[in-house]
Specification:
The protein is globular and about 65 Å long. The two termini are 32 Å apart. It has 2 domains: 4-231, TorD-like (Orthogonal Bundle); 238-284, no CATH class. Helix 2 (10-26) runs antiparallel to helix 8, helix 3 packs antiparallel against helix 4 (59-70) and helix 8 runs antiparallel to helix 9. The protein has 13 helices and no strands. It has 284 residues and is mostly helical.
């Protein structure tokens, strides 16, 4: 990780703002021909130019990115690969990056991120369609903070950007990268430009993430226990023992337990419910 003093140099903040904004747009749904052309013709070169200043050392991953984009000859092909990886079941790679941390959509980590946004003047507008933990939303937020720091000579915003990377992105990026790698392998994609982009983000996060000592507080024992339980259940899922305990507690309250015996994949149908998908990323 970088030291906090280095991260506050205005010229570097400008470059970081542009870098994270480019990544934010790269992970949006490629709805247009212009999006495809930007990724095919300019993306790797733009990141390489910024890397001359920030020195992340991402040259090898940029070569992989160029090679992947060269195998996709049209906007339609890029959209198909994006949709298969991020939008269609089984979605090994999740654009809502806190799902692996919480084991559910809109979990505790997402609530924390929303509070972080609000504390720095970012509120959900009526037009806002993405979930707060969408990778592009988070990267645009980091870009905004670095840009604000450079424009206003505001060290507080620069520290906030680095701390956000440390507090959240550093935690979910290994899951995000692994999911994209697995999806590219199991789906036998024609090309996977999103894997080098995820690895570039991982390298940048490791360099730019910095803890802000002023914001660190000793966690209460209950907070630590909740975080540990959240990680445990996110990894193991629901076990037969968990189901037995649920059934016991429901029976104690005189409630029906029939739905617990229905296969999880068919439970919504059995209960007369329809599954909902998270909204697609906002269009640019």
């Amino acid at each position: 990780m970088t030291n906090m003093t280095e991260s506050l140099i205005p010229s570097l903040q400008i470059e970081r703002s542009e870098f994270y904004l480019i990544l934010a747009r790269s992970f949006l749904t490629p709805q247009t021909e212009e999006h495809y052309r930007a990724m095919a013709d300019y993306l790797a070169d733009d990141l390489a130019d910024i890397d001359l200043t920030l020195a992340y050392g991402i040259g090898a991953q940029l070569d992989v990115l160029r090679a992947a984009m060269s195998r996709l000859s049209s906007h339609e092909e890029l959209l198909v690969e994006y949709s298969r990886m991020f939008l269609q079941p089984p979605r090994e790679a999740n654009l809502n990056t806190c799902f692996p941390l919480d084991g559910a959509m809109m979990g505790g980590t997402v609530s924390e991120i929303e509070v972080f946004y609000r504390n720095h003047g970012i509120e959900r507008g009526e037009h806002f369609k993405d979930l707060p933990d969408h990778v592009s939303v988070q990267m645009e937020f980091v870009s905004c903070l670095y840009g604000r720091a450079a424009e206003k000579q505001d060290n507080g915003s620069g520290k906030a950007a680095s701390h956000f990377l440390y507090q959240y992105v550093r935690r979910w990026i290994p899951h995000f990268e692994a999911g994209i790698e697995k999806a590219g392998r199991t789906l036998k994609l024609k090309a996977n430009p999103y894997l080098p982009l995820a690895r570039i983000l991982s390298v940048a996060t490791e360099r730019d993430a910095a803890i802000n000592p002023d914001w660190v507080k000793a966690k209460k024992r209950v907070e630590v226990a909740i975080e540990e339980a959240r990680r445990e259940y996110a990894n193991k899922g629901i076990t037969p023992e968990d189901l037995a305990e649920m059934e016991r507690k429901l029976q104690e309250r005189g409630l029906s337990t029939d739905h617990l015996r229905v296969d999880l994949g068919k439970r919504n149908e059995a209960l007369g419910l329809s599954a909902k998908s998270p909204p697609d990323p906002r269009r640019k």
